[in-house]
Amino acid sequence: MNACNADKDVIITALADAFPDRIADCRKGLERELADKYKVTDDTCFSGLDCHDKLLQADVDVVILAQPPYFRPESLKACVAAGKHVFCEKPVGVDVPGVLSVMETCENAKNVSIVSGLCWRYDLGVRATMEKIKEGSIGDIITIQENYLTGELWHRGKNPEWSQMEYQMRNWLYFSWLSGDIPLEQHIHSLDKAMWLMGDEPPARAYGTGGRQKRTDEKYGNVYDHFASCYEWADGVKTFSYCRQQNDCFNEVEDWVYGTKGKAKILANHVENASGVWKYDGPKPSMYDVEHEFLFKSIRSGEHINNGDYMGKSTLMAIMGRNACYTGKDITWEELLKDETRLGPDTLALGDYDPGRVPIPGMSK
């Protein structure tokens, strides 16, 4: 929908998903909403665990990768190899080897555009606020606080006809091998803004705590329901990071930035210093449309966009904080990059699969 809003000459020609019923539901909605921009046929709908390979044989110019994060490294690599432009949702992987693979794919990509679903980078108010901070309106940054405190999300239930693997894939939020857990799947938007504020230079170390207090039922897989992390940069700047998915609690999603001369709230587009308060009052189109506008303009102009560096670094930052909370350890960036742990099955197939226990700090590796 956002892709079609972004360019009057874009049409949707093919769909792919592991499960045919998900495609059928999607087709009903798109056909109703998009009218003549919807050109999908039975022959251009592809299902199965290899659906992205089938899709790439169709006559498409741009692929939107919006499947669970586990699948993105392989899918992105295949898309770039096939010469397709890509809109890649966040995060771009769930483990360090996967993310490093994505960064290598993006580094070697030629004549294609790769735009990230880290959508706040394309919000006009946020961009203007970031520019004010970069101009020195709050002085040197001392501390950043990132809050993503919200309620619980969806669950698609359980069907006795589903294998363990299919159940996990349909409820992918709750399995760390598929989603990466809250810091990657949701809180990465906040962590990406902290990375952006720091000039896309990664933090030196991270430590934290987390666990599950409310979402303790077996149906919630092996993920936590809250995390609190501290990221520290080499120059001493710290980001205090909080995320939670629990109902009936205080909610707040905001980025607080404190400097030597003032402070800012990024999502509120608010900057305050001794001279007064600055507030963005310009246009506010949907960032979800704008990110696609940038993608299509880059394709038509031949001036290709490649967001691979920051979308990879921000995903690694999220993994760093998650792993610090899972293990209870203090993790450095150098240690993180050496982590060869791969999440998920050795062979992907719809059958039995044990996703592993809920991590226990001080015991989990």
Mean pLDDT: 97
CATH class of the largest domain: Alpha Beta
Structural class: alpha/beta
Residue share in β-strands:
15-25%
CATH topology of the largest domain: Dihydrodipicolinate Reductase, domain 2
CATH architecture annotation name of the largest domain: 2-Layer Sandwich
Largest sheet: 9 strands, mixed
Got a strand count?
14
Radius of gyration: 21 Å
Number of discrete domains: 2
Q: Assign the CATH superfamily of the largest domain.
A: Dihydrodipicolinate Reductase, domain 2
Question: How large is the count of helical segments?
Answer: 13
Strand order of the largest sheet: 13-12-11-10-6-9-8-7-14
Question: Spans of 5+ residues with little confidence (pLDDT < 50)?
Answer: none
Helicity range: 25-40%
**Helix-strand pattern:** HEHEHEHEHEHEHHHHEEEEEEEHHEH
Gap from first CA to last CA: 41 Å
What this model shows, in words?
The chain folds into 2 domains: 2-120 and 290-306, 3-Layer(aba) Sandwich (Rossmann fold), CATH 3.40.50.720; 121-283 and 313-337, Dihydrodipicolinate Reductase, domain 2 (2-Layer Sandwich). It has 13 helices and 14 strands. It has helices spanning 2-6, 20-34, 51-55, 72-81, 96-108, 124-134, 164-170, 176-179, 182-185, 188-197, 287-301, 308-327, 333-337, and strands spanning 15-17, 45-47, 62-65, 85-88, 114-116, 141-150, 205-211, 226-232, 238-245, 252-259, 262-265, 270-273, 276-279, 331-332. The chain has a 9-stranded mixed beta sheet with strand order 13-12-11-10-6-9-8-7-14. A hairpin with a 2-residue loop joins strand 12 and strand 13 (276-279). Helix 4 (72-81) runs parallel beside helix 5, helix 5 (96-108) runs antiparallel to helix 12 (308-327) and helix 10 packs across helix 12 (308-327). The protein starts with a helix and ends in a 28-residue tail after the last helix.
